[in-house]
Design a protein that fits this description.
- The structure is a single chain.
- This protein has about 425 residues and is of the alpha+beta class.
- It has 3 domains: about 160 residues, 2-Layer Sandwich (Nucleotidyltransferase, domain 5); about 140 residues, Nucleotidyltransferase, domain 5 (2-Layer Sandwich); about 110 residues, Substrate Binding Domain Of DNAk, Chain A, domain 1 (Sandwich), CATH 2.60.34.
- Helix content is about 20%, strand content about 35%.
- The protein contains 9 helices and 25 strands.
- The strands form 6 sheets. Strands 1, 2, 3, 4, 10 and 11 form a 6-stranded mixed β-sheet that branches. A 6-stranded mixed β-sheet has the order 16-15-12-13-14-17, covered by helices on one side. A 4-stranded antiparallel β-sheet has the order 19-18-21-22, with no helix packed on it.
- Strand 5 and strand 6 form a beta hairpin.
- The longest helix is centred in the N-terminal third of the chain and has 16 residues.
- The N and C termini lie far apart (about 80 Å).
Length: about 425
């Protein structure tokens, strides 16, 4: 009697790509089953050594290359040329001179990424990759273009996706327990001697789907001559950041939080909330992100993430449509701010002004904004026809343009136009 063939396990990789080091987390593709948490690749079996230096080295006079920690060791005795910061080199785009030859920076980055995946190949079969999700601090069009060039060189036989750290954090939180995720969470990122980045992820439970949005503040660092002074300085920062909102959890990532210097700050952070310490959140979140893209699980339909590139408010006008009061949308929240544009024609009745409505998805009350059309003749009997055009020049500012269209041959257009800039978050007129 023939036995049923068991399908080979597929895998999803979250690739955290930085200029100083990278991390890889891998998870089994669960199909329709609940997913297991991604596991981060460690350079050592007996310790958590997740960071793979983003560098390669070329043996002088030979076509031999080393990657990551091997590159640092190869260059230590002077026998190899050391090339760090491969992501910056690829984004800059200039040819890199190594000995007497020049190399495409994307080719060097591709070599590094291929070696990283080869390290992962000691744990899983790379031919069984279902998807790779690259995540980085900034994932803009330039970064994606570089990574698309890289992946073409690698000829990966799987799906490849790209997302920012903000999205990876959101993906990670979406897979945590409700009591840890909502109504809000805080992420603190601190590399020793560097900046302290404090990010907040809020979940507006009064909308359907639930809207998640993010706020960020960057501090120059955590300063103090002693551990106690640093602890007090961090506690003072977090006391202010936690004020006024209920946070269910706090995540501390980065090597700056290593050691036992946090005493007062830990007591503060754990007061009524869960606190977690680690440094592989982004690669795990990217692994979950690859799973979301590949399988579109049900939970992704119940939440909507407004990241920094998204318009956070619906913009429209209330008026009469076929004799009934109705809301007319101009631009809906959720589109990329640089793609947000819309037009609407309206007819004014015995006035030279109108109001449009901003309804934030991040909570709070809608705001009405009045726009005066100075110089427009007041025409009786609904004979003033105006065309509105909306665009965004920054993530926080709307530009509204109104133009007089006239009303046929009876009231020709005056040729007048008006412009108003509005702050998205406040509904107030933007300062010039």
């Amino acid at each position: 009697m023939p036995t049923e063939r068991i399908p080979e396990q597929k895998y999803i990789v979250g690739f955290d790509l930085r200029d100083d080091f990278c991390q890889l987390s891998v998870m089994q593709d669960p199909g329709k089953r609940p997913p297991k948490e991604p596991v981060t690749f460690s350079l050592r079996d007996d310790a958590e050594q997740f960071d793979i230096p983003t560098a390669i080295a070329k043996v002088i006079g030979q076509n031999r290359w080393a990657c990551g920690q091997d590159a640092a060791r190869a260059a230590a005795d002077g026998s190899s040329v050391y090339i760090p910061k491969l992501l910056s080199l690829a984004l800059e785009g200039s040819l890199v001179r190594i000995e007497n030859a020049k190399y495409e920076p994307t080719a060097l980055l591709a070599l590094y990424i291929s070696r990283c995946l080869a390290l992962l190949g000691t744990k899983i079969r790379l031919e069984n990759l279902a998807a790779v999700m690259f995540t980085s601090r900034v994932m803009d069009q330039k970064t994606i273009a570089v990574l698309e060039n890289v992946t073409k060189r690698l000829n990966l036989n799987c799906q490849v996706y790209y997302e920012s750290y903000a999205s990876s954090w959101y993906n990670f939180m979406l897979m945590q327990a409700d009591a840890v995720r909502e109504p809000a969470s805080v992420l603190c990122e601190y590399e020793a001697g560097g900046q302290l980045r404090v990010e907040k992820l809020f979940f507006n439970q009064h909308t359907k789907p639930i809207v998640a949005y993010r706020e960020e503040k960057i501090y120059p660092g955590i300063f103090g001559d002693t551990d106690k002074e640093r602890d007090e300085a961090f506690a003072a920062i977090m006391k202010e950041e936690l004020r006024g909102n209920r946070f269910s959890s706090v995540y501390l990532i980065g090597n700056g939080f290593a050691g036992n210097w946090m005493k007062a700050s830990v007591r503060l952070l754990c007061r009524g909330r869960r606190a977690f310490l680690g440094n592989n959140l982004y690669s795990k979140g990217a692994g979950y992100g690859g799973f979301f893209k590949l399988r579109e699980p049900e939970i992704t339909t119940r939440y909507f993430f407004l990241d920094g590139s998204k318009l956070k408010a619906n913009i429209g006008i209330r008026g009469l449509v076929r004799g009934r009061e109705a809301y007319c949308s101009i631009v809906d929240a959720g589109v990329n701010w640089y793609e947000a544009e819309g037009t609407l024609d309206l007819v004014l009745e015995d006035c030279a002004e109108f109001r449009f409505l901003l309804t934030p998805l991040t909570g709070g009350s809608p705001s009405e904004v009045q726009m005066n059309l100075d110089g427009l003749p007041v025409r009786e009997g609904r004979a003033a026809r105006i065309r509105l055009a909306l665009r965004m020049d920054t993530p926080e500012e709307i530009t509204v343009t109104a133009k007089d269209l006239g009303f046929g041959e009876i009231f020709p257009s005056t040729g007048l136009s008006w412009e108003k800039k509005i702050e998205v978050g406040t509904g107030k007129e933007a300062k010039a």
